[in-house]
Automatic annotation (TrEMBL):
Residues 1-21 form the signal peptide. InterPro entries: OM_porin_bac, Porin_dom_sf. Belongs to the outer membrane porin (Opr) (TC 1.B.25) family. This is Porin. The keyword Signal applies. Keywords: Signal, Transport. One of its GO terms (molecular function) is porin activity. GO terms for cellular component: membrane. Pfam families: OprD (PF03573). The keyword Transport applies.
Amino acid sequence: MKKSTLALAVYAGVLATQAGAAGFLDDSKATLSSRTLYFEQDPREPSSNGAKGQDQRQTAQGFLFNFISGYTPGTVGFGLDVQGMYGLNLSGGIDNRAVNGSTPNTVSPTSSDGTPVADWARAGANAKVKLSKTELKVGNALQPNLPILVSNDGRLLPQTFQGGIVTSKEIDGLTLTAGKLTKAAGRASSNYDDLSLNAGTKGSNNFQFAGGDYKVTKDLTVQYYYANLEDYYKQHFLGLVHVLPIAEDQSFKTDLRYFHSTSDGKNGQTANAGYKFNNGYSDNGEVDNNTWTAMFTYTLGGNAFLLGYQSVSDDGAMPFINNGSVIDSRGRNEGEGGASVYLFTDSMIGNFTRTGEQTRFGQYSYDFARLGIPGLKAAVAYLKGDQIRLQTASLGRGSEWERDMRVDYVFQEGLMKGFGVTLRRANLRTDSDLYGSQANVDQTRLIFNYTYAFK
């Protein structure tokens, strides 16, 4: 029996013994979410080496069950959260698999020949303890949403992590968070494996972090976090968010973010090639990066206009956790990839975090509730990055741009109430092989969502 399965059995036993405790069940909630995803990716043309990228047209169905308990009575309360996931490949997959052998997009796990598996599943649980306004969760169904780590939920099923996270709100306006994570299950994986750096090929089972958000006033929040992925990188984050009310239905938001990252352990040692950071140019594969971004959003009624600028330093790309390059314990790269970054430039296809990249971006969004159509929203964004430092100085500098469009609608009443539809379309173009054979890509995602809450 796998450790995660054994732990789930133990947690289930705890649930059974606590079932009669007031608060544990009275304050609990259970939901079943359904997501249907049609994913289409079309590489527009071969790369400079003549290899055509992988066409992909795939439809999959996912189910996500969540049980979140309340707490047992007393000074120290105990609880349990349980999660179950199931994915089903409905049709389609990857074309041209044998052309270049590159890893396909992770909608579902793949078999040895690159074809999608028929179905897959994953289960997990978090035991939790609460004292006053401090809460500890330990388990393998953690989904952090922090500046230094964002759980990815961009495809069919969410990415989850194993470890422990403590959150404290004892001081008014201040939220403190700390934790240690040891493994992750990718958005298209049934299994948990060690953590790794994006573009790293070796695993690490120790990601530690601590930080906090302090609400100085109702309109101003400041943030600081520190994170360390053992043998890969150390990272400091500073953030500031300010909302200036101008008039009724009108505001101006400033959002500033800064990351400072340096090497740790084996990443800085010449002999450990598997721990090197080979995502574009870097000095001997060592992590050495400063990334800052500034976003300004003007909101007027249902309109929101966003403009921003992002700068990645010239010594190396921005590091973040992504297990996509790690070959797992079964010798396969089985859907482990897929990551989110706490940046606006974390777009549908790219994330604009390459060495030296200078990105200008903008977005316009509209909430049609102002026109009497509640539940309907639309947005279009454009990002242009240049001055990208390529693998060697002789290659010069590269550039890329991406255009993203999306429409979301959630039914507000009737039999379809709560049913959501999302249509997303993105186009990525580069003037060099930044993405190998995926240098120029069109991508479409059509998503149907519905969540049923058990009474």
